[in-house]
Design goal:
Layout lengths: L1 H9 L1 H6 L3 H29 L5 H31 L11 H52 L3 H15 L4 H20 L4 E3 H19 L5 E6 L6 E3 L4 H10 E2 L7 E7 L3 E10 L10 H14 L4 E7 L2 E9 L3
Parallel strand pairs: 2-5
Antiparallel strand pairs: 1-3, 4-6, 5-6, 6-8, 7-8
Helix pairs in contact: 3-4, 3-5, 4-5, 6-7, 7-8
Length: 328
Amino acid sequence: MDFFVDYVFKSRAYFLESFTPLGIIFKVTYYTAFFSIYIINYRVISPRTLAKGKLLLFGIGVIGLFFVFAGIRYVLEEIIVYELTGYHNYPERNRTFKYYILDSSYYSLKSILFSTFMYLLFLYLRNTSKMHSLELEHQKAELNNLKAQLEPHFLFNTLNVFYSELAEKQPETAKGIFKLSELLRYITYETKKDFMSLKEELKFIKDYMYLHEKRFENNLFLDFTVKGEVGTQKIPSLILIHFVENIFKHGVISEESNPAKILITITERYLIVTTKNKVSHVKNYSSRGVGKINLKKRLELLFEQDYIFKINKKDSFYNTYLKIPLKN
């Protein structure tokens, strides 16, 4: 486009000057500054401002780019090129800070506009693809849920009959049946949305752990701690069960000297989950399991890069760390 403008709107002689050794050098310096601004805006400023709706900061960043562009050109053209060739790009009367900034602002504006447009275009395409992927995952989950259902109403009614019959004679057994019914009801009806109440998710985890406590009786050694205030926050549905279930399935939870640990920390903006447990050598506890792959895929769809998920196996112990933003 620049060559086209030089040829059509200026002159053939001016166009041909671009292909002289000095003209090529100044073209290289110009496009070095041009694409430097393009990359800074596309990779740094736009993602940290436009993507988060911070228009004022974006405007400040754009103003800063005018000065960066002028600075790069000045260093390349009026210092480095001059030292090498003895030629300036601008005549002496125009080699002032004010003129250099004003003149460069016109050229840098093209780079800023192009990079902003391309960033917004790809952001739109990524968001569209992300929404489509989430919709497909949700439809798959609903389909799998339907396949797994065997007349849930009949199942819940049967559990309620058992609960009623045992409520007075065997209250502990009845309580277990009630907890099981609550777990199944939550999975069947309450988790169809991508995000659920943190309070409900924690209750689901505690009911799940209660059933395992009845199963292991006095041989269960698990420290479960929740720090922070539980309010109206929301988190992805059934995300906590992944960590708890893996400990019960694959970890050693019967050694008093090495109790499994689950710590859930609630801050103003984030939910942090850390777990530690001794690895059972009887079962395969590979970090490349299907459950972990699916969890990472879901986290990427929901949060893109705004999350941390780490897995570490050292000696005989397995550690996990998850940090996700809370939704209010």
